[in-house]
Automatic annotation (TrEMBL):
Keyword Iron: no
GO molecular-function term, one example from the UniProt record: DNA binding
Source organism: Vibrio renipiscarius
Domain (WCX) ranges: 206-280
Domain WYL positions: 117-175
Protein known as: Transcriptional regulator
UniProt KW keywords: DNA-binding, Transcription, Transcription regulation
InterPro entries, per database record: CBASS_pafABC_assoc_protein, DeoR_HTH, Tscrpt_reg_HTH_DeoR_CS, WCX_dom, WYL_dom
Keyword set includes Cell division: no
HTH deoR-type domain segment(s): 11-62
């Protein structure tokens, strides 16, 4: 996890913990405690913690009176925001939060994403269809589902033409909200929770492979992988090959068929996913 995402996770979890302990938190005090701007803290309360039972009072922010006695609610908030993944699955955050401390969380710089965050959050809540200006092209009729922080990077998880994609917020230049709405799919929401955003990227991904010499002829004779390019034939007869794929997951079945004669050099996430799937297959034997 990046340094900034860890800082964000720590700040949000610490704010929740202090509220559930009965503290009244002022923006001025939090600015000193966390060394962040007033704008960042307003965004914490107005966007990131919008579902938490927090109310604004004369002295700052406090837990809504009806919620203060129901500390287990913190487990639900942590789970819905994804922060519970930072704690071992057997640990109840609501009972152990006083013993936990998150230090130096990481995330990308989000200061320039303030308006975009608010616009997308409103569209998701109201289920409005949107158009995106993304990396120089306009993507129409996008169904926005959730804002996701994956390994410190912020993504919009959304469907386009019925397919789930992830869009880096830093690469979105404009958002156009339509007046028509969409009906969210429970299956899509489940997929968002279970898949890494890198696997859903709307951009093409480059895969670098090393192919053993005894199967090199199959890759030399034809296009075995999408947009395949032979980069180099090594002295031992093995090949360095690149493949540009629309989604990383699409190439997994082909790679599994050639294992262990093919080694994924990059991206590391694809290599780890292949290892995970192979281990899962061995466990079923």
């Amino acid at each position: 996890m990046s340094d900034k995402s860890e800082k964000l996770a720590f700040r949000l979890s610490d704010i929740l913990t202090r509220l559930f302990m009965g503290e009244v938190l002022s923006i001025e005090q939090l600015m000193r405690d966390y060394q962040v701007s007033e704008k960042t803290l307003r965004r914490d309360f107005n966007e990131r913690l919008i579902k938490a039972p927090i109310t604004k009072c004369e002295d700052g922010y406090r837990l809504a009176p009806v919620s203060r006695v129901t500390i287990p609610n913190i487990q639900k908030i942590m789970s819905e925001s994804g922060l519970s993944a930072m704690v071992p699955s057997g640990i109840s955050f609501s009972s152990a939060y006083q013993n936990l401390l998150f230090k130096n969380p990481r995330t990308e710089n989000t200061e320039s994403l303030d308006v975009m965050f608010r616009t997308l959050s409103d569209a998701i809540t109201s289920q409005f269809i949107i158009d995106l200006a993304y990396q120089g092209q306009v993507i129409e009729s996008v169904h926005p589902y959730r804002l996701v922080n994956d390994r410190g990077l912020w993504y919009l998880a959304a469907t386009h033409s019925g397919i789930l994609y992830s869009y880096r917020l830093s690469k979105i230049s404009q958002i156009y909200r339509r007046e028509d709405k969409y009906k969210p799919s429970p299956k899509v929401r489940e997929s968002i929770n279970s898949q890494g955003m890198e696997w859903l990227t709307a951009e093409k991904a480059d895969v670098l492979l090393q192919v053993d010499a005894d199967i090199a002829e199959y890759f030399l004779d034809g296009m075995t992988l999408p947009n395949q390019q032979i980069l180099k034939q090594l002295e031992d007869g093995s090949l360095l090959i690149s493949s540009r794929v629309t989604k990383l997951g699409d190439v997994i079945p082909t790679l599994k068929a050639w294992m262990p004669k093919v080694e994924v050099l990059s991206p590391v996430s694809l290599k780890l996913e292949l290892i995970r799937e192979l281990n899962a297959s061995l466990e079923r034997l």
